[in-house]
Amino acid sequence: xxxxxxxxxxxxxxxxxxxxxxxxxxxxxxxxxxxxxxxxxxxxxxxxxxxxxxxxxxxxxxxxxxxxxxxxxxxxxxxxxxxxxxxxxxxxxxxxxxxxxxxxxxxxxxxxxxxxxxxxxxxxxxxxxxxxxxxxxxxxxxxxxxxxxxxxxxxxxxxxxxxxxxxxxxxxxxxxxxxxxxxxxxxxxxxxxxxxxxxxxxxxxxxxxxxxxxxxxxxxxxx
Length: 223
Description:
Layout: H1 8-18, E1 25-27, H2 32-41, E2 46-57, E3 60-71, E4 75-83, E5 89-92, E6 97-101, E7 110-114, H3 133-142, E8 145-155, E9 158-167, E10 178-184, E11 190-197, E12 200-212
Antiparallel strand pairs: 1-8, 2-3, 2-12, 3-4, 4-5, 5-6, 6-7, 8-9, 9-10, 10-11, 11-12
Helix pairs in contact: 2-3
């Protein structure tokens, strides 16, 4: 998913929505916690983090841990640390291609494939840019549905705010009926996300060891 660019008119509309009290529900747009992320992210040049993901598709499941690196405006790199495809990695530099390598004895062979090629996506077809934190937040601001915010409790000792999106049209969103995002009250960044198809969780991912403004350069994203 591409990074969402907001026009001045859209920014004014989102700001008006953000003025509502936490815990109230509203049509898709934004909430105070999502706006707080946007403000914080505007001051971030780059970041790294680990993504622990559990995905379900039909009777199949996939558990992976990824190492993610990102630098503005559109550079991303991943490495599968554990799980299916361990040792495989890819670099995305914007556009519709990924430069990557497989794990094991094929690690030395680099090739470019389409962004949505099965070798560059997860079980449910998620791409490298789908795992970027700003794109994860943007889904809650753009997918039509009923949006609400409330206390999220502690996750790993971190106080959080919970944002819930009840999806208006699941059929247009891979069957997803509800999306829940927990954001740190301290860093304003996502901590955990869960998606549901009815009563069944089909995506559960945690965002770990976040470091921002670490000094990445374009040389860190060989394409």
